[in-house]
Amino acid sequence: MGARTGAEGVVVGVDGSPASDGAVDWAVDEARRREVQLLVCHAWNWPYPDDERSAPARRVAEAMGALVLEDAVRLARKAGEDVAVDQALVRGSASGVLVAASRMAGLVVVGSRGRGGFDGLAAGSTALQVPAHTDHPVVVVPAHEGTGRTAARVVVGVDGSPDATAALRFGFREARLRKAALAVMCVWEDPALRPGIQWLPFTVPDALKRGARMRFETSATQMRADFAEVAMETRFVLGHPPRVLADASADADLLVVRARGLGAAPGMPLGPVTQAVLATGPARWRSSTPPGAGDRPPR
After folding, report:
1. pTM (2 decimals)?
2. What is the DSSP letter of 298?
3. Is 199 in a helix, a strand, or coil?
4. 8-state DSSP, 283
5. CATH of region 153-287, choose from 1.10.510.10, 3.40.50.720, 3.40.50.620, 3.60.150.10
6. Can you spell out the DSSP letters for 182-236?
7. What is the pLDDT of residues 96-124, one digit of tens each?
8. Which residues lie below 8 Å from residue 72, measured CB to CB, with a gap of 6+?
9. Which CATH architecture group holds 6-141?
């Protein structure tokens, strides 16, 4: 296979956790589908002062990181003998290292939670910080990835805004790569039921809903012209977006959402829907490019 490198490659962050192993499997499969190179990356950190007394312990920390990386690379090469695999051992925080790596990648893949945190935690700090601070696609893979899916299917959640275009395009592209059906969903929550509605005396909920539905259907139809081979269905649903999207994607290969949608406050790294989906979602999650980053055409 003639793998393409550089800005088209896939980067996977690893730390030896079960979710990390699942991320490696997923990243190998994605690199194979895209016919690009896979970079397996581990960040090791030494949070203490660098001096002569700490040098032996620091070298041990780096060596342990090298072992974690070696195991992950071995797993990647076993899973994808036809995939070009490279590796990187970088000193720094996992989030910072992966955000930097994302600038030269087509996709970043991480596990939902690493070895830190506590029991019951659905998404760790890296799974939340990387999507929040990069304008490139991020896929978050849970430790139980692969369970419950019965058919090739991709779900995209959009909110009827112009900024949803990048998420929609990514979903179409992934569906085409996987020869999967695509469900494009716009979940509408009645503004009258939201806290603080007393501050919006001139809001007309029905008009807002009609406008969102029209923008949603128009954007999905226009995008479909570029992906005629993808079987697509559109659904405009009333309900609580995180709950509806989680239920709709329970048997899906991939759930695609934007980093920030209409409900996000200015300057908020991740919108409330994306945060909720990351915290409770059943399958895989992806954050699209944030507002202002522009829509990148499929490669």
Report:
1. 0.81
2. P
3. helix
4. S
5. 3.40.50.620
6. EEEEEEE--GGGSTTGGG-TT--HHHHHHHHHHHHHHHHHHHHTT-TTS-EEEEE
7. 999 999 988 989 999 887 665 545 555 67
8. 12, 14, 16, 20, 21, 24, 40, 42
9. 3-Layer(aba) Sandwich (3.40)
